[in-house]
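Late entry, evening session. Most of the bench is empty. Finally got around to the prediction I had been postponing all week. Sequence below, unchanged from the version circulated by S.P.
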Amino acid sequence: MNDKKVSRRDFFKWSGGVCGGVALSGLGAFFPGMSHAADTYTGVTYYTPTYKGILSVKKQCIEILKQEAGDRFNVEFYDSGTLMKADEQTSALRTGTIQFMFHTTSYITRSFKSLGITGLPSLVQELYAHGDRIKMESPLWKHINDKLAEDDIFMLTSGGGVLQPEYIWSGDKKIGSLDDLKGKRLRIVSYEATESLKHFGAAGVRIPSSETYLALQRGTVDGAVLNISTTMGRRLFEQLKHCYELPVTAFTIGLFMLKRTWDKLDDETKSAFWTAAKWYDDNFCHQLNNQYYVEEYWPQIKAAGIDIIQPTEAELQTFQDQSKPVWDWWKNEVGEEWGQKAIDLAMGK
């Protein structure tokens, strides 16, 4: 990790609007005596090393990007929120302070509503089982990018699918059925999931992952809708006793740039980003879902004594039926025709 992160962060606070726009590469235009340097592309993620699988795959992607860049351009990458927090990334991308970002789709669906397709309750099982439907150059990937382009955003890759669905985790107040949801307060990030669980009497509370441990410990919430990476990465299993494996929602971590930034890249630079993104597309969700989760995370959850509860077929059907109004609401948000096509593509139609 770059050892200049503190000074750079201070620098960006006052210079992002000027220097960010030229990616710190054109300082010679402001200071004629300074020689021109290679372009620098700065990227960020707020994920920390405690998210073992997630961060390691990202870092491998960055190493590939650096190799592909050679001496044609520089790559600076900041993890763990050392340059900016999660909720600062999108605005930093827009101002040119950074040129690319890894971001969790469920965090930004209110800004980019088309990404809600990655978290629609019940539907997420389809993208989890068939990640190829959203891989780079797939019809759904192109469809999403057509919509994102309206906001000047380009998703190079979704990571090749979505991560294992987020389930409902609870402590002393056991949630092991749909009936148990009534009157419970749950930590939820996804707006789509919040809407869906309202039908069962649960209240969603938006709490950052970094604050969820204390929220569970203090009883601020009775449970949480979590992907297992968050359960492990934030050591939330220490405050949990039950996992109700209802596929409430899901997310992935995409690699994003401004559309206009991507369009202006020269062919060699585009090729470098594309190669790195393709590697990430082939490996991110695949490695997490099929290796880290299966071989490391779930065995540790079981060893911690957490009770894993499978929903009945009747509960799954009820949840799917109650999720349809949320699909309709989302289609109204993004446009009926566009939204229905996205759902059809996600369903493999």
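Two things to note before I forget:
Residues 20 and 97 are 4 Å apart (CA to CA).
The longest helix spans residues 267-303.
Will write this up properly tomorrow.
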